[in-house]
Design a protein that fits this description.
The complex is a heterotrimer. Chain A is of the alpha/beta class. Chain A contains twelve helices and 14 strands. A seven-stranded mixed β-sheet of chain A has the order 7-6-8-9-10-13-14, with helices on both faces. Chain A has a three-stranded parallel β-sheet with strand order 3-4-5. In chain A, strands 1-2 form a two-stranded parallel ribbon. Chain B contains eleven helices and two strands. The mean pLDDT of chain B is 90. In chain B, helix 5 runs antiparallel to helix 8. Chain B has a two-stranded antiparallel sheet with strand order 1-2. In chain B, a hairpin with a 2-residue loop joins strand 1 and strand 2. Chain B has a domain of 207 residues. Chain B is globular. By secondary structure, chain C is α/β, with parallel strands linked by helices. In chain C, helix 2 packs antiparallel against helix 9 and helix 2 packs across helix 11. The longest helix of chain C has 27 residues. Classes of the chains: A alpha/beta, B mainly alpha, C alpha/beta. At the B-C interface, helix 4, helix 9 and helix 11 of B face helix 5, helix 10, helix 12 and helix 13 of C.
């Protein structure tokens, strides 16, 4: 982006803020899980949205959706029907928990409000809703990158898969299976784990017995770190390609850099690994604001909300305007370029990152751009 | 060799669960109170260790690793204070009321601790330092992490000490007297409130020690409490309500399923089989493995 | 019941309910209506839970499982097959009830925390299936696309229609609860909770009562789960999760373990509480926890206890009954013994508690069973009443094999007993306790419900204190209430376990007089005691046990003169100081 359009955007943003302040400000409720087992990822989501919305002139308030569909629907109804007029709401930042998205879709369709999320669950864009916009590569995208990197780049012949028995894990596992089979390297071993599992030796000993030559994970943060640590401790030295939870700085913080040697992971992005000035500026602002390291969920949600704000700057005044903008435009965000595939999948690229063994900051080793061919 | 390795891991995991369970049993034996905030107390112990590590790291020159044993007194003190708070706020005011009220006050206390920690520390999993250091010891082809051995040793020491206190000391007799007949205990000059506070402080400090040890081995997140109390409750009931020996066996049984059975089937199947086993045990022994049969005396 | 207290306590409730209805109908936003709808669903679940947790006093951790089964039955049928509400709702209720029925046999006999663990294990097992059986349940993601409630052309998607429909069903649930909890059954539940030992003595079948409570809780839970799925439009494993169970338990304790009001207050309050504090961001659940803690400390018996009206719902019976008009004859030919026991033996570990004992009792006979402590007297009483089983021997009473029948069946057959330590529920009045026994008496007994109860009360000279709660009675009166309870079942055999223990001489005399009257009307009475000052003038016959063996049985004076009796019995205590023997 050259300097001139940027000045232009800042000017219009200021102008938009001023004009908006005269009328009733537009609203984007942020409905995300900040308590319960998905609070780590949900907090990133909130922070990304909040960083974009602060000072934007658009009103927002954060509502916890915890872990159940019930509370997500409560939060949605509260944001839309209680207090101020519903017309002010031009879009909703919707929870990354797939189950909650499935419950919210009928409501969003009824209220005709677009939802911007970073949920990876494949199903949410397969229900024919015009109101779902996903700013994080869905399982269809990241699991393709995951499988292709293992098979094509590492030459894996006998992959083993460990997934979590949660909405996130089961959805990802299905896509991983599909991709591995399509590549002619179906998993020689697969097992689901509850999030509360503590000792990973039983599952890892079965991985070893299966003769697997690589271990593909699709687990949440804590279990990912436990598997990596215990695999290394028992001398299971096959490559580990983890799911996106591994890229979160909080996951790497649980392990010694040496334990991370030979570990890779898929993700939509890795803001702490990037060196371009815009992403670094984002990361610095994020650290200042929240005293945390940014991850891809925060960045994806940040990009998603920035696209909403771009729509506002371009004159969108209602939910219908926003929806039309999101569905038809192409937006160049920090993580990637976004455009809808007609179902609300906005993100089509993924990255593979690896740890060198002497740092907790991963290096991006492979970028899978435009895996769906939409862009 | 895998079998021996699995057995060692199962014992270490069982010891960890037993450590969680014994504080619960202690409070149970001294007051009959069912403390459902006990899981959160373990989590609080883990976070106390994380916070103390952070505080000490600022005082010490960079690069110095702090072993968990240095943190232990601080963790015990903080969680003992937490135990006093649980007793004072969630138990003593309603001690003579229906016991089910205590279930809910302690559940409420757990909600406060979980969400307080979530707000203060964030939701990310955290790790506490190892008790005596990291690294592994190899013996006849079996690899034992030093932390696993520390957990087993701590469990043996604490369970032994508690059994001694409960069965052989004046304090243990006072505990039992208070639990069995508070009025009689009071008449005998036992200070009921003081004994209750002591039991909660000790029981919760045990939870704190467990939290410190588990937070290195398995990490700790604010929402871990529910899963821990679930395991402890299963262990305590299946072993025989209130029996220290039973709780230890119960903890080992859970670990046997999670490590042993899981290694020859799958994790979800092993979990299901554990619940089936629990139901079968209750079918054969309605009062748990070491429970006193509740004989009706007319 | 004092009418002025009633109005004083009731008007805030009426006003509050009225305000809530006006708010719901005219002022509530769609969001407010949703929260109220959820409250209505939880009212149904909590009403169900009150049966098993409140009335039956059993810590069931399966209410969440019943809720989840109801949810999944509706969720799977509605989203996969498009089955309509008219069919899915009854199937959800039936599904949860069926599950309860299947697990009832092994699980319901367990006590306290063992019952809790069994129900917990069941719940966890179902959760595991829901999460891992992806093909049917949709796995952890659950199943989307559950249609709204529709009956014919009418549909309730959200807002007021759904709110009214759900609360309509909640009212139906309340009516069912009221119908199921008629005073006699509430009293039976009270007996089961407060005095588990005496449940058979009241003629109550504890297994049946618990089963009823468990099935009702399951049916209500299943209904609530089905409605829940329609309000969220998805079914997911959270409906089976432990969180639902904790919510239900908390609502029940905060609102109240008994009564519709408790269920309504608990459900309304706990559904709204988190919503009120949402402004506190990450700290809102901390605030919820603090308030929850404060409420239970402040009102350990539930917030509804502040609105308690007068305690007893009983209307006193106006016609005072005359004592002694009932005949306590056994339903067999006269001349045959009422109790025939032969060769009874029982061993506890290394102790031979009973060793080849023969004993027979005829109608109208008062037999004293004496013997030193540990001689086996109470063991024999327990075997007669079915609480303990003999290892060998035959024991029959009026055609019933006592060795095979359950304690309740034995009591209903007309074999009544009292206890060494009187077993009376503190919360019931004397009249309620005795009427409960009359209401649960067997068909063979000559019992006419409340009239028989009133007569038993009169016989035991308790009419003046009939409306006093048992918990406040002194020891001597409790013994008489126990006899009245025994009489209310229309017995032909009465076994008294140390009826004179701890009583003053004049109280002992009163009891003796009552027993004589009863024997006069045909009742066979076995009195276990070692207080000879009490027994000597009362019993026509004495039997003496020593170390489990019957060493003498015959006319009073013959037995007292027996050398073996002298050695075994008076070896312990000097004959001159027999008044102090009662232990």
């Amino acid at each position: 982006m050259s300097a001139l359009p940027r000045v232009f955007i800042v000017a219009t943003a200021l102008l938009a803020t001023l004009t908006a302040a005269a009328a009733e400000p537009l609203r984007i409720p942020v409905l995300v899980p900040i308590t319960g087992f998905l609070a780590l990822e949900g907090t990133s989501q909130r922070n990304g949205a909040e960083l974009a919305l602060r000072g934007s002139g658009v009103d927002f308030d954060v509502n916890d959706t915890a872990t159940s569909p019930e509370i997500a629907v409560n939060a949605f109804e509260r944001a839309l029907t209680s207090g101020r007029a519903r017309d002010d709401v031009i879009a909703v930042v919707a929870p990354m928990l797939g189950t909650q998205m499935l419950a919210l879709i009928p409501l969003a369709d009824e209220f005709n409000v677009p939802m911007v999320t970073v949920s990876g669950t494949a199903r949410i864009t397969e229900l024919g809703s015009a109101n779902v916009f996903r700013f994080f590569p869905g399982d269809v995208v990241v699991k393709a990158a995951h499988a292709r990197y293992a098979v094509e780049e590492l030459g894996v012949k006998r992959p083993a898969v460990i997934f979590q028995t949660t909405a996130y894990g089961q959805s990802g596992r299905a896509e991983l299976d599909r991709n591995l089979t399509a590549l002619g390297r179906p998993a020689v071993f697969a097992e689901g784990l509850d999030v509360s599992v503590k000792d990973m030796l039983p599952v890892l000993s079965k991985v070893r017995e299966s003769g697997a030559d690589a271990l593909l994970l699709h687990l949440h943060s804590g279990p990912t770190a436990l598997v990596v640590r215990q695999a290394r401790a028992m001398g299971l030295d096959i490559p580990i390609i983890a799911g996106s939870a591994m890229h979160q700085p909080e996951t790497a913080a649980l392990l010694a850099p040496s334990e991370l040697a030979g570990v890779c992971a898929e993700s939509g992005a890795s803001p702490i690994s990037e060196s371009d000035p815009a992403t670094r500026a984002f990361a610095d602002a994020y650290r200042t604001a929240f005293d945390r390291e940014p991850d891809a969920f925060a960045l994806g949600q940040y990009d998603g909300v920035q696209m909403l704000l771009a729509a506002v700057r371009a004159g969108a005044k209602s939910a219908a305007d926003i929806r039309a903008y999101l569905a038809s435009r192409r937006y160049r965000g920090l993580a990637m370029t976004y455009a809808s595939d007609g179902k609300g999948n906005m993100a089509h690229s993924a990255v593979i990152l690896c740890y060198s063994g002497d740092s907790r900051v991963p290096v991006i080793v492979k970028r899978y751009e435009n895996l769906t061919g939409i862009l | 060799m895998l079998g021996a390795q699995l057995a060692l891991n199962a014992v270490a995991l069982g010891a960890a669960y037993a450590l969680v369970a014994i504080g619960f049993v202690l409070v149970l034996n001294a007051t009959t109170a069912v403390n459902f905030a006990h899981g959160e107390s373990v989590v609080a112990g883990g976070f106390a260790a994380v916070a103390l590590t952070g505080a000490l790291a600022m005082l010490l020159p960079a690069g110095n690793a702090i072993p968990g044993i240095v943190l232990l007194p601080g963790v015990l003190l903080l969680t003992a204070l937490l135990g006093l708070a649980i007793a004072a706020l969630a138990y003593l005011p309603i001690r003579n009321r229906p016991p089910v009220s205590v279930f809910v006050t302690t559940i409420a206390f757990g909600i406060i601790v979980t969400n307080g920690l979530n707000a203060a520390f964030g939701a990310a999993p955290r790790a506490a330092p190892a008790l005596l250091g990291t690294g592994t010891i190899e013996f006849l082809g079996v690899t034992a992490s030093r932390q696993s051995l520390a957990i087993i040793a701590t469990a043996v020491v604490l369970i032994g000490a508690l059994a001694f206190v409960l069965q052989r000391t004046q304090l243990g007799r006072q505990f039992r007297a208070c639990a069995q007949d508070p009025e009689m205990a009071r008449a005998l000059g036992i200070r009921l409130t003081r004994i209750t506070l002591l039991a909660f402080a000790l029981g919760t400090a045990f939870a704190g020690a467990a939290g410190l040890l588990l937070a290195h081995q398995f990490f700790v997140t604010p929402s871990d409490g529910a899963g821990l109390i679930l395991k402890a409750y299963i262990a305590v009931v299946i072993g025989g309500w209130g029996s220290l020996r039973g709780a230890t066996i119960g903890a080992m049984l859970i670990a046997f399923f999670e490590v042993g059975v899981a290694s020859i089937s799958s994790q979800p199947l092993a979990e299901g089989l554990l619940y089936v086993a629990v139901l079968l045990v209750l079918l054969v022994r309605p009062d748990g493995i070491f429970g006193e049969p509740q004989r009706l005396r007319a | 019941m004092n009418p002025s207290t009633l109005t004083r306590h009731r008007w805030p409730l009426v006003a509050g309910a009225g305000a809530l209805v006006i708010y719901a109908l005219f002022f509530a936003s769609s969001y407010d209506q949703r929260i109220l709808t959820l409250s209505g669903i939880y009212v149904i679940m909590v009403l169900g839970y009150q049966f098993i947790f409140g009335h039956a006093g059993a810590l069931s951790l399966a209410q969440g499982a019943f809720f989840g089964v109801g949810a999944y039955v509706t969720g799977i049928l509605a989203s996969k097959f498009g089955t309509g509400f008219v069919l899915t709702f009854p199937l959800s209720v039936a599904g949860a009830s069926m599950l309860a029925l299947i697990v009832a046999v092994p699980v319901l006999r367990l006590a306290s925390h063992y019952f809790a663990l069994a129900t917990l294990a069941l719940s966890q097992l179902l959760l595991l299936i829901a999460v891992n059986w992806e093909a049917v349940t949709g796995g952890a993601n659950g199943l989307p696309g559950v249609p709204p409630i529709s009956i014919g052309d009418w549909q309730a998607t959200r807002g007021l229609p759904l709110l009214l429909f759900v609360w309509g069903l909640a009212v139906v649930a309340m009516l069912i609860a009221r119908w199921q909890l008629r005073p006699a059954r509430v009293a039976a539940f009270t007996v089961m909770r407060d005095t588990p030992l005496a449940v058979p003595a009241f003629g109550i079948d504890p297994g049946l009562l618990r089963l009823r409570a468990f099935l009702l809780s399951a049916a209500f839970g299943g209904a609530a789960g089905a409605l829940f799925v329609h309000t969220n439009r998805v079914v997911s494993p959270e409906t089976l999760g432990f969180g639902v169970m904790i919510t239900c338990l908390t609502m029940t304790v905060v609102g109240g373990r008994f009564g519709i009001l408790g269920a309504v207050i608990g459900a309304l309050l706990l559904t709204h509480l988190p919503e009120w504090f949402r402004g506190l961001d990450e700290y809102y659940l901390v605030a919820v926890g603090v308030l929850l803690l404060a409420m239970v400390v402040f009102a350990p018996d539930g917030l509804a206890s502040f609105f308690k009206f007068s305690g007893s719902t009983h209307t006193p019976i106006s016609t005072p009954a005359q004592p002694g008009s009932t005949e306590y004859a056994p339903p067999v030919a006269s001349g045959r013994p009422v109790l025939e026991a032969s060769n009874m033996s029982r061993r506890y570990g290394g102790v031979q508690a009973l060793d080849g004992v023969d004993l027979a009792l005829g109608a109208g006979e008062i037999v004293g069973l004496i013997g030193p402590n540990g001689a086996g007297k109470t063991t024999l009483a327990n075997i007669i009443t079915g609480i303990a089983r003999a290892d060998t021997g035959n024991i029959r009473s009026a055609g019933l094999d006592l060795a095979r029948a359950t304690p309740t069946a034995i009591a209903r057959h007309g074999v009544a007993r009292t206890f060494q330590t009187p077993q009376l529920p503190d919360g019931l009045t004397v009249r309620e306790a005795v009427e409960t026994a009359a209401a649960n008496a067997g068909d063979t007994a000559n019992v006419r419900g409340a009239a028989t109860a009133a007569e038993a009360i009169a016989t035991c000279d308790l009419s003046d204190i009939a409306d006093t709660r048992c918990g406040t009675l002194p020891h001597g009166l409790r013994r008489r209430v126990e006899i009245a309870r025994a009489l209310a079942g229309g017995p032909h055999l009465l076994v008294l376990d140390e009826p004179a223990a701890g009583l003053a001489p004049e109280e002992q005399a009163e009891i003796a007089q009552i027993l004589r009257t009863l024997a006069g009307s045909g009742l066979a009475i076995l009195v276990i005691d070692h207080n000879l000052e009490f027994l000597q003038p009362l019993a026509t016959r004495l039997a003496c046990l020593d170390a489990g063996r019957l060493i003498a049985d015959g006319p009073r004076d013959d037995v007292l003169a027996n050398d073996a009796v002298q050695a075994a019995y008076f070896g312990l205590v000097m004959p001159t100081s027999t008044s102090g023997v009662s232990a």
